[in-house]
Amino acid sequence: MAARAKEPIDPPPDSFLPLHRDTFHILVSLADRDRHGYSVMKDVLDRTDGALRLSPSSLYAAIRRLLDRGLIEELAERPDPDQDDERRRYYRLTRLGRAVATAEARRLERLLVDARATGLLPRRS
Amino acid sequence: MFRALLTLYPAAFRDEYHRELTLVFVDRSRDTIGWRDRVTLWFDVLTGLAKEAPKEHYRMIRQDLFYATRLLWKHRLVTATIVVTLGLGIGVNTAIFSLLNAVVLRALPVPDADRLFAVRAAPPVASGNRFSGPMFERVRASAPDGVVVAAMSRVAQVYARLDATRETEPVSLQLVSPAYFDLLGVPPAIGRSLPGAQNAQDASRAHEPLAVVSHAYWQRSLGGSADVIGRALIVNNAPFTIVGVAPPAFGGVWLESPVDIWVPLSAQDAVKYSQNYSADGVDATRPWIEQERIWWLDVIVRTRADDPMAAAALGAFTAGIQQQLPPPVARAKVQMTVEPFAKGFSLFRRHFATPLLALTVMAAFVLLIACANVANLLLARAAARQREIAVRMSLGAGRLRVMHQLLTESALLVAMAAGAALLFARWAGDLIVRVATASSTGAAPFAASIDLRVLGFTAAVALTSVLLFGVLPAWRTTRLDFVGALKAGTRGAIGGSTARPARLLVVLQVALSLVLVTGTGLLARSFYNMLTVDLGFERDRLLTVTIDPRLSGTGSTEWPALHQRLLDGVAPLPGVRSAALAMCGLQSNCRSRMDGFTIEGYDAQPDEQVVFLVNIVTPDYFSTVGMRLIAGRALSERDLAQTPDVAVVNRTLAAKYFKDGQAIGRRFGTNALDIEIVGIVDDARTLNVKDPPGPAVFFPLTQRPVVARALEVRTTGDPRQAIASVRRAIGVAAPTVPIEAILPVETRIRTGLSQERLLVLLTSGFGALALGLAGFGLFGVLSCAVARRTPEIGVRLALGASRSQILWSVVRDAQWLVLYGFLLGVPVAIVGGRLLSTLLFDVNPYDVSLLLAAVLTLIVVAVGCSAIPALRALRIDPTIALRQD
Is residue B303 part of a domain? Predict the structure, then answer.
């Protein structure tokens, strides 16, 4: 019987925290669907109401780091009809990437709770 | 323009994301509305680039460094070989440059050294660029506002002790004018400078017996505590009061003669300073500072900031001096110049600058040879990595990326080698200075230290090394056929593609080694000639004693009696054949000259200066030192003060000034022809080994009552055995006369050749290193060649070739490499010999025998280094070799 290759064990998501702001937003952007680079950039700009503008350099440097750490994976190129049908690289969250993004979100949520508890932010009614 | 900006990224990142980045930029451009959006877009692009591009470069370098470190550690032996080879190559260059830096490049440790100038003048203002006391005062009075002028004597050895102690020790002293320390901008570390420069009240103290001591002397011999201020210092039996301690690291303005004590110019008579001067009649009753015709002071100036080239100061001096010239020379035209003084004075710099240049070139050759060796090693190693590199490049790694990785390995090797080189240079630099200045004990007079300039030089040499030995292997390694490399396996890894550049490098090494070895041969023969040249006197079994009776407290009227007591005490000693006194000792560079002679029957040209080297000696001088009398008689005890003045001249003087050299009975003199020539001695090199004999005259000590500074003693056996008894005899005959030195003349001769010895030692070391490296390179290339040809050799053996034929084919390989190296190296060696000619003593720079000797040496090395590969070829088993195919 052929031996089955064992799947590599992911490192604990908490070991990646805290995430850099740009990194977290990119992971959030990929949480609901696969996207190419410009799509990520636009999504981050819209969600933050223009507060966070990723430059092309920052975006792809972050994408490279995320690929190296295994938090996202690259998919085959395919055209985007919304962007003149040019073939673009698409990216997707890996299982680890989703776990890390979730862990960061929970960390931020805890901070928010603490801020409300101390009166820094108004409590929710 | 955006695409152009992308070139700021590392090639690997650019290759990967170039298209995506461009697409994103185009998308954002499409979405911009108005100029504000466009400005924002470009702002984002530029700030993003400024932030991320350096990070990517850093990431790539860190990755390559990590990989390179792992790889170098894996091949530790090769790495160590490369680091040692390069370390030696860079190290010798750094050591020589540190010496060059200390001697030629480094400025005095004073502020604004570029505003310091030495004043030079022709007669009658100065003699030998030294000024008299009154003339210095005229220069000082002519100085424009803001220009500071100072004068100083040369550095002299004296004897000093603190009042509370009885231990006298030899120290170095310099007499200086009050403005000396202010001019140089070196405020004292403790106390004050010599008075006289601040104001009129201060000026009134200019002649007080005060002294400033150096920081080193203060630490070394005066206790190093602040209470030294105000204490008495006895210098040559004259008392001084210490008023200040100079700052650390300041030892005066003479590179190889650091000063321990500075005293005022007016103390010249008190400390009995009477050297390094020229004079036209000395009045022994008056201090030198007052006398117009004793030239003994070097004059230096600090110019104003708005006159960096001292032009205005020079103009003022010339005009001012012209108006003030004393009557005898009032109509003479004043000719003055200034020379930059930022680096101070140095005889060592003057004599050793050309040898240093030669050493620098030779060291560069050694580095080239070392780099060639390393390049060959890296080529061989890169050939073994072709499969790995083929895999990487076939998986998408760009050529530039792989080259970057390979160059990072080279850079890491060089960085390790440079570190080793700096350690080597630090040790070697100090050793070189000691040998060059003959300072076998105590501190070296100056330090060839590792400063920023030396570090910068080392970095530049290291970078050059990387370019020399790193780029070629990296280029060749990445220019390969992937399929071929992947199929080749191990055998193909020892590729023929690297053989040719490796062989070219070996040819270069052989050529450079030939040049170095030839240069070494020329300098070695020159040094041998210096050691064995006929000096004109008998150098063995001769002891020379340097004394200074002026320090004994005896007046000049007592000198004749003191001289006689010395001779009476030493001459009868067992083991002593004869003794004689002289004003100047043998081989002591005592350049006592007199000019202004008129000679019977000789008409001097209008601009001709009749100058003789002068020595004043006792009657037994010539027989004691072994100078050959070739005509007439020697000086005798009958030549007294009341008998007619006589002199003995040398062959050169007789030949130059008298027809057919017939000088016996002829007369000469300064004011009248009142000196008769009674004898002619053969020429002798009395100053040093290298200076050829010039016209020289010897006067009897009884007719010229000067102080005798040298006692020459002819011994019957080893002169070293007589040192103790001679010292005791002098101590009995003249207990207060200090003995400055007592040593065999042979030792003094060798000490005088210390710089030449250093040059020969260093070039020999370079030559040996070059031979070793070239031999190693040849060995490597031949070994690779044998390994590559193993299947071919197996086939030839199987087909019946004899072992001797195989051996000859390997040797022939080496022979061609060496021959091509000779063809390249011989013309360069000939040119190199011509360039070295100024350093050679009685050696023909085109000496064919030396060139042949160098060629033979290289042939022997080549034969030795090809022996092992040749023997390996002989031991090849054809059956095994054929299976390798």
Answer: yes
Contact A89 B51 (CB under 8 A): no
Q: pTM for the complete prediction?
A: 0.78
CA distance B775 to A34: 64
Contacts of B731 by beta carbon, 8 Å cutoff, 6+ apart: none
Helices (H), chain A: 21-29, 37-47, 56-69, 95-117
Q: Which two tokens stand for residue A34?
A: 């696969």
Which chain A residues are Cβ-neighbours of B44 within 8 angstroms? 53, 55-56
Nearest C-alpha neighbor of B175 from the set B319, B296, B3: B296
Nearest CB neighbour to B21, from listed A53, A60, A86: A60
Note if the bond before B123 is cis, omega within 30 degrees. Answer: no
Question: Which letter does DSSP use for residue B650 in this model?
Answer: E
Q: What is the number of domains present in chain B?
A: 5
Distant-in-sequence, close-in-space partners of B485: CB < 8 Å, separation ≥ 6: B386, B387, B389, B390, B492
Q: Taking 80 as the threshold, does the pLDDT of residue B308 lie above it?
A: no
pLDDT at residue number A1: 47
Claim to verify: residue B614 and residue B762 sit in the same structural domain = no
- Examine residue B66 and state whether it is found in any structural domain, yes or no: no
Compute the nearest-CA separation of B408 from chain A (Å).
Answer: 22
Distance from CA of A34 to the nearest CA of B (A): 16
Which pLDDT band holds residue B685 (cuts at 50, 70, 90)? very high
Q: What is the pLDDT confidence band of residue B8, given thresholds at 50, 70 and 90?
A: confident
Partners of residue B297 on adjacent β-strands = B131
- Residue B434 tokens read as 């000691």
According to CATH, the topology of domain A20-117 is Arc Repressor Mutant, subunit A (1.10.10)
Question: Domain boundaries in chain A?
Answer: 20-117
ipTM of predicted complex: 0.81
Question: Mind listing the pLDDT tens digit for each residue in B36-95?
Answer: 888 988 888 888 889 888 998 898 889 889 989 998 898 888 888 888 888 888 988 998
Tokens standing for B628?
């050959």
> Same domain for B568 and B511?
no
Same domain, B639 and B514: no
Q: How far apart are CA B513 and CA B521, in angstroms?
A: 12
For residue B26, the enclosing domain spans 2-57
B345: which DSSP letter?
B
Report chain A residues touching chain B, CB-CB < 8 A: 36-38, 41, 53-61, 63-64, 83, 86, 88-89
The pLDDT assigned to B680 comes to 96
pLDDT, tens digit (0-9, with 9 covering 90-100), for B844-863: 999 899 999 999 998 888 88
pLDDT digit string, tens, across residues B254-298: 988 899 999 999 999 899 888 788 777 677 778 899 998 889 999
Distance between CA atoms of residues B303 and A87, nearest Å: 74
- B140 vs B317: CA distance, rounded Å: 8
Nearest to A89 among B20, B49, B53 (CB): B20
Å from A58 to nearest chain B CA?
6
Reported as a single tens digit per residue, the pLDDT across B449-495 is 788 888 888 888 888 887 877 887 777 777 766 566 566 554 444 44
Q: Are residues B101 and B122 in the same domain?
A: no
**Greatest extent of chain B over all pairs of C-alpha atoms, in Å:** 118
Q: Which of A53, A56, A64 sits opposite B24 (nearest CB)?
A: A56
Q: Is residue B847 part of a domain?
A: yes
| CA closest to A39 among chain B residues | B24
Task: Tell me which of B1, B5, B23, B55 to substitute to probe the interface with A (most A C-beta atoms closer than 10 Å).
Answer: B23
Name the residue among B25, B44, B56 with its Cβ closest to that of A53: B44
